[in-house]
Amino acid sequence: MKQIFVLLVFLIAFQSSSAQLFTKEKVANNPDNIDQKFLSWGYFIGFNQYDFNFDYNEDLKDILVQKSFGFHLGLVGDMRINDYLNLRLEPGVFFTTRNLEYDESYFEGMEYNDSDLLREVKSTYVHIPLLLKVSTKRINNFKPFIIGGISTALNLSSNQDNPNDNSSGEFRMSKNTYFYEIGFGIDMYLLYFKFTPSIRGVFAMNDELIRDVDPNSPWTGNVSKMQTRGVFINFTFQ
Predict the structure, then answer these.
(1) Number of domains within the chain
(2) Are 202 and 34 in contact (CB under 8 A)?
(3) Which of 64, 99, 102, 178 has the maximal Cβ count within 10 Å?
(4) Beta carbons of 229 and 203 less than 8 angstroms apart
(5) Stated pTM of the model
(6) Strands 92-101 and 64-66
(7) Domain range for residue 16?
(8) How far apart are CA 81 and CA 1, in angstroms?
């Protein structure tokens, strides 16, 4: 709810300032009037940064997540409901890498080497969100909006069915993840197409960790829940 409130405040403030900045009428681009079509199509490319949120069974030092920027691309299917509401399907492929750093205290009383303290988690997601886009009134060649919804993702690099676990150097995650998403952006009407930069936060709703065979495993034994969260920066062309 806090994220939704912040986004609504931002949208209201943006609309107010835009109304002052762009009150002078300008030539409206996009002669094909894509916004009036019941169904429209496009594609997107962008960057992502995924993180993990951990809940623990015992109060030990946190598992640190080294984040990096990933890349994604996909398609857009848009269904017009009215001048202010659109239902969107945005299937895409997302590539990302996260490194997990474990503190030495997790291995107290055990033999270990430096490689045991680090786990590289490479993920390739087939990500399918169903989103509701809520727009303001078009201001010349600009239209701000907020967007939110739910999604599912198939992790092609999950290792869920791998019989080896962390004792053999294999970090395992569940194949399927479910998210809720919320973000904002602005439609920019250019001469021949509509260009839309946007930013969106995604938050997993299910536990993604596949536990090791050993219930006292230093890598998974103290984790009660592991959930993905991330930020998408999208550039959409319609």
Answers:
(1) 1
(2) no
(3) 102
(4) yes
(5) 0.84
(6) antiparallel
(7) 2-237
(8) 25
The pair of three-digit structure tokens given for residue 43, joined into one six-digit string: 């594609």
11 — phi, psi (to 5°)? -65, -45
- Both tokens of residue 26? 């300008």
- pLDDT tens, 126-157? 999 999 999 999 988 999 999 999 999 999 99
- C-alpha–C-alpha distance, residues 16 and 39, integer Å: 30
CB of 185 within 8 A of CB of 153? no
Side-chain-facing half-sphere of 139: CA atoms under 13 Å: 18
Q: What 8-state DSSP symbol labels residue 35? A: G
Whole-angstrom CA distances from 225 to 22, 105, 144, 154 are 48, 19, 36, 19
- Residue 233 parent element (H or E): strand 223-237
Q: Domain with 71 in it: what CATH number? A: 2.40.160.20
Query: Nearest-CA neighbor of 203 among 134, 132, 153, 157?
Result: 153
Q: Is 229 exposed, middle or buried (0-12, 13-18, 19+ CB in 10 A)?
A: middle
Number of continuous H segments (helices) and E segments (strands) in the chain: 1, 10
**Residue 153 near residue 204, CB atoms below 8 Å:** no
> What gap in Å lies between CA 95 and CA 93, rounded to an integer?
7
Nearest CA to 5 out of 227, 225, 184, 230 is that of 184
C-alpha to C-alpha distance for 28 and 45, rounded to whole angstroms: 26
pLDDT tens digits, residue range 2-33?
A: 444 444 444 444 444 444 444 455 667 775 57
